[in-house]
Amino acid sequence: MNKKRYLWNHKLNHLKSHEVVYLNEKGKTIFGTALSNSMENNPYHEKTFEYYNAFCVGEAVIYLKTMDYFLLEFKQTNKNNSSIIIK
C-alpha cells in the first residue's frame, strides 16, 4: 500500500525556482514546490519565508511534470543568441 503524499506551495512567487505538477485524487491539476507525507505539518524549514506563507494544495497522486522557471527565463532571455553554452 502506498502512503499518501501531499503537495505544498507558498505565496511568494518571486522565490519559486520551480514547481511540480500533479493530478490530485479528483483528477484536477495541482501545482506546488514541496512534497510531504502530511497535509498538516509544513514541510518548509521554519526559518524561511516559505514556512510562514505555506499552504497544502492537496493530495499528490500522479506526477505530471516539473517546471523549471530559472531555465525557462534563461531560454526566453537568450532565445536569439545561439552562441551561449552552459557547462
List keywords for this structure.
2 helices; 3-stranded antiparallel β-sheet; disordered C terminus; alpha+beta; 15% helix; single chain; globular; 87 residues
What report would you give on this structure?
By secondary structure, this protein is α+β, with helices and mostly antiparallel strands. The chain has one domain. The protein contains 2 helices and 6 strands; from the N terminus they run ββββαββα. It has helices at residues 49-52, 69-77, and strands at 6-10, 18-23, 29-32, 34-36, 54-59, 62-68. The protein has a 3-stranded antiparallel beta sheet. β2 (18-23) and β3 (29-32) form a beta hairpin. The longest helix is centred in the C-terminal third of the chain and has 9 residues, at 69-77. The radius of gyration is 16 Å and the shape is globular. It starts with 5 loop residues before the first strand and ends in a 10-residue tail after the last helix. The model is unreliable at 72-78 and 81-87 (pLDDT under 50).
Compute the average pLDDT.
80
What share of residues are in beta strands? 35-45%
Spell out the helices and strands N to C.
Answer: EEEEHEEH
Q: Helix- and strand-based class? A: alpha+beta
Helix content: 10-25%
Uncertain runs: 72-78, 81-87
What is the general shape? Answer: globular
The main pleated sheet reads as: 3 strands, antiparallel
Radius of gyration: 16 Å
Please provide the count of β strands. 6
Task: Please list the strands of the largest sheet in the order they lie side by side.
Answer: 4-1-5
Tally of alpha and pi helices: 2
Q: What's the domain count?
A: 1
